[in-house]
Amino acid sequence: MEDQSRRxxxxxxxxxxxxxxxxxxxxxxxSKELFIHHVYFYLKDPNNAQDxxxxxxxxxxLSKVPTIQYVHxxxxxxxNRSVIVRDYTxxxxxxxxxxxxxxxxxxxxxxxxxxxxYSHLWEKVLVYDSVGPKNADEA
Length: 139
What we know:
TAT_signal; TAT_signal_bac_arc; Dimeric_a/b-barrel; Alpha-Beta Plaits; 40% helix; 4-stranded antiparallel beta sheet; Dabb family protein; flat; alpha+beta
């Protein structure tokens, strides 16, 4: 699904649709598995200190979504090895109890306001969502 159509779908779905989803009725793996959402933001004007400060302001507001268990806002580290990517402006990593909590985050008004009010600042975002691999005894 394209980013814009996914975003529009999430905005239209809203919290009401998720309110009908009970974690108890969800598949066991969806309600138990730690979910990590990691986003890399690339500013349109990476040398603009005002844009950087504005995006940081937005990320701090975004961190108030109640389903987030832990959040880390980062800048590229000064490490220098060939495998390290350092061309982004901010990294946003947050942890959720499970994918259901992350889906609530995606449609939460704070998240929707963040996209609406700050997306003009970035030229692209990269998103890496992850869950833990199953242990051999869980398979």
